[in-house]
Specification:
The chain is built from 12 helices and no strands. By secondary structure, the protein is an all-alpha fold.
């Protein structure tokens, strides 16, 4: 059967539009994501895209929801600490795949079902072991840490020659006189075998979880 323009239009769906938008955002970021560029990437026309998703705002709502859908929900069979820890580790991995998403995660005014399901599951997990007040503290602090770490990690120089150049600059003996703390950090820590900034995520996450648990027990 010949492939007509009508057949092509029927093959386009909202799900395909959003999946294509997610892939394109990963390639170029959301600032440069336009309906025309999305249509070109999908081999379609802008009006076809608008037929399925009427605006860029709705596309952004949709792809943020797809990102939330990728994050592992807390396991209801586990205690709150290991369950929420696994969720935070999963969130970090997902945000590393979609670094453009972090500024949008909590800014959308029309959250989708995956977004709402995710937040509900996280709060339900926290409330299994914490009071409502402590769950609210944990809810805010944990996401601030995860999102902030994701932004910082994405902004770091890429591993390899670029990172080596940065560390070498900090280790330059000519800087030691003016920036002794940075010089010490570079030469005695960051340049040592096995150093990985990403390891700080586990340390920070456990520090927060242990702190929340200690405060909750004290109360």
């Amino acid at each position: 059967m010949a492939v007509t323009s009508e057949t092509k239009r029927q093959r386009m769906t909202k799900e395909r539009v959003l999946a294509g938008a997610l892939e394109l955002a990963d390639q170029i970021g959301v600032a440069d994501l336009t309906i025309r560029r999305l249509a070109d990437a999908l081999g379609s026309k802008p009006m076809t895209i608008y037929h399925h998703v009427p605006s860029k705002d709705e596309i952004l709502d949709g792809i943020v929801d797809l990102v939330f859908a990728e994050i592992e929900l807390p396991d209801p069979e586990l205690d709150w600490k290991p369950a929420v820890r696994a969720r935070c580790v999963s969130a970090r991995k997902v945000l590393a795949r979609h670094p453009w998403a972090v500024p949008l995660m909590e800014s959308r005014r029309s959250p989708g079902p995956a977004t709402l399901t995710h937040h509900d599951a996280v709060l339900a997990c926290l409330l299994r072991g914490l009071s409502l007040e402590m769950a609210a503290h944990a809810y805010a602090v944990l996401d601030a840490f995860v999102y902030g770490f994701a932004i910082q990690e994405a902004a770091l120089p890429t591993p390899g020659d670029e990172m080596t150049d940065v560390v070498d600059d900090l280790a330059d003996d000519r800087l030691a006189e003016h920036y002794p703390a940075l010089h010490t950090f570079a030469t005695e820590h960051a340049m040592q075998p096995g150093y990985d900034f990403g390891d700080e995520f586990d340390f920070g996450l456990d520090l927060i979880l242990d702190g929340l648990d200690a405060v909750a027990r004290a109360r």
